[in-house]
User: Fold this.
Amino acid sequence: MQPDHGARHLVDRQRLRAAAGHSFTLALACLITYWLTTRVLSGVHSLSTSDGLLGGLWSVVATVFVYRECHRQSVGAALSRAYATLMSFALCLIYLLLFSFHPLGLAALIGLGTFALMAVGRDEDVVTSAITTAVVIIVAAVSPHDAWQQPILRLVDTAVGIAVGVVASSLGSRLTASPAIKRDSNPSTQSA
Assistant:
């Protein structure tokens, strides 16, 4: 049986349309997140200009982390990011209220966060929590003045990024459908 080139061409066009919609929505979401964090949040409270830019980076990373083609996947990624960030937030805040940066403190916090997340069955959040902890603690070493504020600021930045990512995913999934879903619903592309 000869493959149906017309159906394949249609699937390719649908895939390109979905890719264009997905990439445009993600790019727009990242722009909005960056603007909200560097203009709005930094206007409310920022330790410095570079801290405001770091907040923009942090929010954009959270948006990219949670934005998925499927809204359900975005919500799952948002919950994962929230768990990991909250664990890191708690550990870093307590540590920075008591101590200044030290490499042993960094290692201890990553170990404690890993243990706590694995103990409650959140193994999939270990990497994100460890990365978050490392960045927050090392930024506190780079900018030691009021370092205890770093976890709070990064928690707020992450919340903005998560919210924008989830909203963008909801809107994006309504505007573009996944090519896999369209392909599976098209009988001419299914094998016999």
About this structure: Residues 8 and 143 are 55 Å apart (CA to CA). Residues 5-186 form one domain. The two ends are 10 Å apart (CA to CA).
